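Need tokens for this chain, all 151 residues.
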Amino acid sequence: MLRLLRLKQLNKPLLRQTIRLQSTVETPKTFNCNEEAELEYQPGFAFSVFPRIQDVHTNDLVGSDSFGKDKYYVERSATGNLPVYIDVKNGGNVFTELRKIHGNVMKLRNDLQEQLPHIPKQNWKCVVQSNKIVIKGDFSQEVKRVLQTTF
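Here are the structure tokens for all 151 residues:
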């Protein structure tokens, strides 16, 4: 008997009354399936979110812009400096490296050669695999000056 009373007392908090609030928004109109539909079937009409493949042009595609075709961009380092570094190889040979190049490395090299004609053309080397330009000699200040003013 005592057990039944305790069970009844435990069940009381679980039997809460649910309050349903009525929305102030107008209820949507329902569609009766038994009535005739106002929409007519149109043969050949198909609704799709995506356009047909015949209607898509190559200029509309993402990544189809002409970046990389005679265009380039030199990304700055995390501290905001230009990525121009001096590298000293064994034997004392000094090289200037320009890194973080996005786009056409050869076009950037040609533009830099026009701006810096006093550096012989045989000293320039493009490393396309790692997107960098290597110049034999210490020309870091000149390259930085050209990149800051011209590009």
